[in-house]
Write a structure and sequence with these properties.
Layout lengths: L4 E4 L2 E4 H29 L3 H25 L2 H20 L6
Antiparallel strand pairs: 1-2
Length: 99
Amino acid sequence: MRESVFAIGGIRRTSLDVVNGISVAMGLALVLVGVLFLMVARVAGSAEQTRGAAALGLVASLVFLAVAAVLLPLPPIVTFTVASASFAIALAGLPRRGS
């Protein structure tokens, strides 16, 4: 991968540079999405609204984790695992419906 060089938009990059760049970008995007979900949880008026956001985050994170496990290197796998665990813990900590 280090020796396979090609041009993207006139810039020469190795395959390793591209894979590492995508890996770092996905990790940063995941952190940003986590911050956005925290902001949604603070603005939500009820536990039911928060539950919906946390459930959506958990499902999306698990799907991305499955894709990352098959196709990507270690950094996105680690960040999606942490995100999935965080969403699961957040859902478990919310009061149950009708309680």
